[in-house]
Amino acid sequence: MASSVWKGVISFGLVSIPIRLYTAARSKRTELHQIHKECNTRLKQPLFCPHCNRKVDRSEVVKGYEYEPGQYVLVDPEEIKSITPASGEIMEILTFLDGREVDPIYFDSSYFALPDKHGEKPYCLLLKALEDTKKMAVAKVTMHQREYTIFIRARNNGLTLHTMYYQNEIASVEGYGSNYDIKLKPEEVKLADQLVESLSGSFHPEAYQDEFQERLNELIEAKLKGKAVAVAPKTGKAPVIDMMQALKKSLAAHGPKPQKAAGGTSERHRRKAS
After folding, report:
1. Do the Cβ atoms of 161 and 113 come closer than 8 Å?
2. What residue ranges do the domains of the chain occupy?
3. Is 50 helix (H, G, I), strand (E, B) or coil?
4. Can you tell me the distance from the alpha carbon of 12 to that of 159, in angstroms, rounded to the nearest whole number?
5. DSSP string, 188-242
6. Contact, 119 vs 11, CB < 8 A?
7. Which of 79, 126, 164, 272 is the most core-located residue (most Cβ within 10 A)?
8. pTM for the full predicted model
9. Mean per-residue pLDDT for 145-156?
10. Which CATH number fits domain 6-26+83-165: 2.40.290.10, 3.30.420.10, 3.30.200.20, 2.40.110.10?
């Protein structure tokens, strides 16, 4: 089993839930390393002290904050430990809220929470309460030398946690969200809505793949076997045409969304009548 990244207690009122956190998702990709072209050796980036003019072992490394150029306040691990708040061990639930109120932009990393020893019953109690009320808990937790606000929600018969980006971490881009002085024709809006409907469907995560990573793996495999590399098909740029014409052509290409036949309703009425 994977190693836990945090061990502690969720405090749910006077109920304590011992848990362990496990990373729920991480990016998977084929990495290309930097290689010395002359000898095909992987290049390294050693720790180097320009003052002592030598490589430095990791045992010689401490942490520090640069308050002025070249001037640092050194911080000892024990000092870090002494200032860690209670949330380093106890994840106290602060409030519950409707998950639909939270903009997904605030979601950062995801974790699975599993009950620790003797924690199964209170774990299931919180899980059931979240499922019944359709609420999401908000708590605080300190890990990796940072205190996070964290969302706790019921998912697939378990508790899934998401760290939150703080408001000052959400970027502000000038012009985003502006009220554009654009007048849309009702027919354009209608066709755009129809196009959205024609392309709509259920969410199946397995249907989405990283095509670049797949092709990169195929490229590496082909080169290992000395085979020719298949070139990815290119799509030409769409010609600049009238927007109404573009919408109509797009809608025609995808076809209208199959409508539920009125006969379905009649059939239900017939079944009820029988």
Report:
1. yes
2. 6-26+83-165, 183-196+242-256
3. coil
4. 13
5. HHHHHHHHHHHT-----GGG---HHHHHHHHHHHHHHTTPPPPPPPP-PPPP---
6. no
7. 126
8. 0.70
9. 93
10. 2.40.290.10
